[in-house]
Amino acid sequence: MAATLSLAVLLGGGGYWAGTNNLGSALGLPGMEIAVAAPRPEQAATGAVIYYRHPDGRPQFSATAKNADDGRPFVAVKESEDVSFSAAAAKPAEKATATAEPEPAKGKILYYRNPMGLADTSKVPKKDSMGMDYIPVFAGEQSDASTVKVSLGKLQRTGVKTATAVLATIGRQIRVPGTVTLDERLVSIISMRTDAFVDDVAKVTTGDRISKGENLFRFYSKEIATAGAEYAAAGKSDERTGQDAGSALRLKNLGVSEETIGSIAQTHQVPTSISYPAPRNGVILERMATTGMMAKPGDVLFRIADISNVWVIADVPEYDLASVRSGAEVTVSVRSLPGKSFKGVVDLIYPQVQEQTRTTKVRIELPNPDGLLLANMYAEVEIEAGAAKPVVSIPNSAVIDTGDRQVVIIDKGDGRFEPKDVKLGVHGEDRTEITKGINAGDHVVVSANFLLDAESNLNSALSGMTADEVKP
After folding, report:
1. What is the pLDDT of residues 81-137, one digit of tens each?
2. At what angle do helices 258-267 and 222-236 cross, to 10 degrees?
3. Any idea what the CATH number is for the domain that residue 163 is in?
4. What pTM, to 2 d.p., does this model score?
5. Residue 310 is inside which H or E element, if any?
6. What is the DSSP string of 398-413?
7. How many Å separate Cα 180 from the centre of its chain?
8. Last residue within a domain, chosen from 238, 265, 295
9. Are residues 231 and 322 in the same domain?
10. Contact 81, 45 (CB under 8 A)
11. Which of 275, 295, 315 is at the close of a domain?
């Protein structure tokens, strides 16, 4: 072991002596001179001091100058000594310095604001209680105080999502109660236009169905008999057709049917009692005629209703009236007919609002060929409401409704967001109509928009302060 150490010392000393005395040149070996040349000195560190590290290289760092436990000072680390992964740092220091472009000036820093959007500012850089740096506010950034600029990382953390405003037809269902009623246009009242005696009444009662032309009763009227005799006499003799037409018109005005007038013209005889046929198909709602009674002009003898078509009167709340239009499709269901539904349309929106209930009656016309729907049935009505043509629409979650104003956050790109006051139209199941404020193709925020709105309100409030008020 001692011999080995002696040999190492001897070789090391010999090498040092050969290098200092340029033994390679003396022996004619130029490569030897290069091999023992003195190493290049390291380049001096440049840039500002960014932190301090432990003198022994331990994983201990400090933002300010301090001493280690043994009293030695921490070593200052400058910008050129720190690890950098940028493209410019990979180049030699002298080249990076020569080709580096100066960053564009952002303007004078007015103040620093809280990174969490709290109403707290500082005139010098500082950190909040969570260790986050306060954000500098430059003079050029105050031109549009309501605009919010958010970094890409913060956008991902807050979960901001956007959607596009598009032209679409908005629809939704309004569910309201209703009642089945008769179509007023299909109700007939049978009465006499002159004094008459009822001779015979058909064997029908209230609720029975009757067909058009079916005999209801027979009657005798002195005035009708006189007019009929004149018509028969005029037709039997060779009187002029003008008098014939006048007699026939008088019989029509007295309520005599066309069949009876034609029979008188052919037989030239007036029947003792005249039949009164049913004017339409329907259900007898009321029977007042009895055999042997005397009917005065205007007395109601029968009331008949055609139920092949019915109405449903629905009560629509006042705040839903703007969404209901004439011609809208309607689905009606009744509790007594489970599993069945009836399709109809909105026929009329009544021009008044009930003071007590603040509702408006809407009339819906329904076909009822099988007669399943009866008057006064309770109905559940679903009205297809919404805009009839495509309108500018956005998802419902994009609208921030404070009661006094409605706001939508617009994505202007590059992390910039701006609130816009809008006017709302029809509210659908998933989308809302926008009548004023944005156009089709605009990008709107549909998630985390309340955070952006709060940030915008803070910017607006700070920009409204005076110069002295901005300074903390």
Report:
1. 755 444 444 444 444 344 444 555 566 787 888 777 666 778 888 888 878 888 887
2. 50
3. 2.40.420.20
4. 0.51
5. strand 309-317
6. GEEE-SS-EEEEEEEE
7. 32
8. 295
9. no
10. yes
11. 295
